Amino acid sequence: MNYVLAQFKPGGVSTALQRLEAELAERTTPTPPDGFLTDLTELPSTGNPVPTRFLVELRGRFRNIIAHLDSQPLQAKKWNSLFDVQAGKILQDWFARHCPDQAARLEVWPYLCIVVLPEYVVRRFPADDRGSLQVQRYASGRRNALYRPYLREVVFDGADLEDLGLNESELVGIMERNLSVNHELVHAIARQLQLESKRGEPVRTVARELMKKVQFEQKTTDLTGMSDDELSILMARLAEETRRR
Predict the structure, then answer these.
(1) Residue 141: which of 170, 172, 166 has the closest Cα?
(2) For 30-48, what is each residue's pLDDT tens digit?
(3) Would you list the domain boundaries of the chain?
(4) pLDDT digits over 121-149, tens only?
């Protein structure tokens, strides 16, 4: 069955964030509304809504993440890193099983952050000293608190960015330059960067130079018509040219 997730009405994300900040100011744990719908959300005009039991299942899996991480003596940076890895795996699996075409709708990610999983996302990206939440982590976009680890799981097979030697801005750069145009190209870049990491190469430097070469290559070659094998061969050649510099 073709299930669809709800989304915020126009302007709803801003209002919903204000409400969430108000809840947090009262030191209450934010909880989802009954049925996971509010006056600020709506369903697309076509498709059947994702059954509530599936959303409850997703909440349960995130609750288990938090419980597992909190049971260990982890520093904040390591806690955040492990949360992202596990969140990406859960989201990739959940979407694949219940509504595979919905992950591409950027509108669903604020809904998941603010309505379905608010107390878990707030643990990852809490309010600052003034009680304000980071808008970019809850709104639509590739820096969304849940979309970001989902993309990393899909593109990099869940590899830890620190292990690869990449930071978030570099990951987002790869995504924004290529993902909307050519998913296969992004996967080829990801595979090559993982190989560079295993070789002990300075991945951050290689990534920066490789992206320059890919951008130039796109101007002269139709990469959209290449197979996975052809893209892998091309990335290997460009990476080798980068290492020779």
Answers:
(1) 172
(2) 989 888 999 999 998 788 9
(3) 1-156, 159-245
(4) 999 999 999 999 999 999 998 889 999 89
Collapse the DSSP code of 113 into the 3-class scheme (helix H, G, I; strand E, B; otherwise coil) and give the result: helix
Rounded CA-CA distance 186/170 in Å is: 13
Model's pTM, two decimal places?
A: 0.77
What's the CA gap between 234 and 107, in Å, rounded? 34
Give the separation between CA 207 and CA 38, rounded to whole angstroms.
43
CB distance 16 to 122 below 8 Å? no
Q: Interior CA angle at 166 toward 160 and 172, to 5°?
A: 95
The answer to whether residues 142 and 148 touch, using CB atoms and an 8 Å cutoff, is yes
Residue 167 has a pLDDT of 66
Token pair listed for 235: 């990335």
Q: Which helix (H) or strand (E) holds 178?
A: none
CA 131, 137, 139: angle at the middle one, nearest 5?
105
Query: What is residue 47's DSSP assignment?
Result: S
**Distance (Å) of CA 123 to CA 74, 133, 180, 222:** 14, 11, 30, 44
Question: Nearest 10 degrees: CA dihedral of 186, 191, 197, 203?
Answer: -20
CA distance 184 to 155: 9
Instruction: Look at residue 188 in the predicted model and tell me its pLDDT.
Output: 84
